[in-house]
Amino acid sequence: MKRHSMLLTPAVAAALALGACSAETEPALDEPTAANKSPASSASTSASSTSTEATTDISPTAAQAAAAKPAAEGFTLEDTHIRSEQPAEMMIEDVRAGAHDGFDRLVVELSGTGSPSVIAGYEADPRQQASGYEIRPAGNAFFTLLIQGVPLSMSADEEIVAKSDPSGVAAGNIVGVADGGVFEADAQYVVGLNAQRPYKLTVLENPTRVVVDFQK
């Protein structure tokens, strides 16, 4: 995945625009069997599930079966880029995941002004921005998420850093999330899954959330 080459197909762009502008609400992630977040998470995820609930089969057979499943409407395996016309200066408030009927959901909640641009896609060998160091969470497939409009200053505050820490975030086929830090106002996360799965990327409002749904 290259930052300068993220383009949406017309069909995917229409689906993303509809998701971003609609009154869609995020499914509840506080149900005991739905979400998993580390103890350092905010109060909204304090009722997260146990680690056994996030256990998933990452065997080669399971990976091949997932890769062979066709994408549902609105889902894709291609790189995507949501471009915002509003300048953003935001802070990450929470990172959480939940298992739902038909999809597993990753949510990055933000506060601040404007609306973020987002670049997302699968990478065989994910690397940290600037340093080029390998980022390798648990899993067989790696999905990179870049949220643009997050100032570098957020990394200087321990309380803010704790909110953005994805340690322990897992649900369903999302088996781990690694934090790549912030570089030039781009916050980077790498999601580990049991296999490449079609996904749908949206930005929701009130509060601002970057949402990635991975098809089961």
Automatic annotation (TrEMBL):
Annotated keywords: Signal
Tree of life domain: Bacteria
Protein name: AMIN-like domain-containing protein
Start-end of Low complexity biased regions: 33-72
PROSITE patterns: PROKAR_LIPOPROTEIN
InterPro entries on file: AMIN-like
Record-annotated AMIN-like domain positions: 92-215
Region (Disordered): 28-78
Signal peptide bounds: 1-22
